[in-house]
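Two proteins follow. First one:
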Amino acid sequence: MTETPRLRGMANVSYWAADWQAAKGWYTELIGFAPYFLRDGYAEWRLGDHQDELGLIDSRYRPPGTASGPGGVVLYWHVDDVHGMFARLLALGATAHEPPQDRGHGFVTATVVDPFGNLLGVMYNPHHVEILAAKEAAVVPQG
């Protein structure tokens, strides 16, 4: 008997940029450190509580038929302060797409378009906080 294939979590999100060098600089400034992996036309950072991977790909490698510009899918990065991060993203040159919105039950979201045409979402997600707290509690020695 084989197990039914299932999604297990985000492994990598990739953004495209026609001006890859400028985008690499912009994301390095936003993230706060240089990518851990570099090759011509590709940079990758590991960041956040789960060391999620953000890839930045030169648009010359975009597969034919791949849409450019803001699309219909938004990956939301968890942040502790949506309003503060939204303001920081705008200060770095992003354009407001959807200002911070209270979605109820503690969820707050916002989206911007980065200077390279990609949708970038930020979210305060109480479930993310709960999961992280549970994992941290599980590794704390009981004494």
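Second one, unrelated to the first:
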Amino acid sequence: MRIAVLQANAVPGQVDTNVARIAGAARRAVEGGAHLLVTPELFATGYVPALVPRILLGTPPEDIVRRLVEVASSCGIALVASAPDRGPDGELYIAAHLFDRAGARLATYRKTHLYGPDEAAVFTPGRGELPVVALHGFRIGFLICYDVEFPEAVRGVALAGADLVCAPTALPEPFGVVARTLPPARALESQVYVAYANHCGREGDTVLSGRSIIAAPDGTVLAAAEAAGEELLFADLDPELQRASRADNRYLAERRPDVYATWERPARTA
């Protein structure tokens, strides 16, 4: 399977503009032979959490989803896109949706680890559900941005059966080191592909760090973007590489969860 990862600068509050940018990237991804496009966190609204409730007054979550469905179906490519998602009691989540090339929504993941007071003031953390969906011979799982900084999260998606972890991201400066080090490390630790799609440029008062990346199960970097500027990354995912990596590095097979449970208990002092 060939995947594409979009790095771009969204315009906060301009849903039409942002969805049009996703559509343009989707068309370029199809031209490049990609089966799946992964886009950044909250790209449809722009990454300014405080603005999201006001944006949703004019463009509710279901309308944003409808527009993303149209992108996937009109361009003929599977799409991972992040947008606000509303729960049954009105609570808001940061979500990542997977649509197939016909526009059917196959999965929705809600961000487990909210980052900082700005996100916590607007959104509710997800409850840790980890959907995994088969597509083009690969099993796809999801995390969002800060989730990837917790090794337990990537390991959890791998144990749920994923071969590829798609991670829409809004990583700010000065934390670009996270993008360069953690996706390859997490890929190696759990023998999964990691597609990490970040914003770039300034959105509101936040400067996003770019450096989107696609990492392989052996820890190698298949494609990486610069800090600034829009880029569309491509990579071919090879199931044989993944099988070889899991044979060489038996982290999943040789886990000892019975021991790990004792490590989480408070240490006894002398």
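SUMMARY FIELD: The domain at 2-263 is CATH 3.60.110.10 (Nitrilase/N-carbamoyl-D-aminoacid amidohydrolase). The chain has a mean pLDDT of 96.
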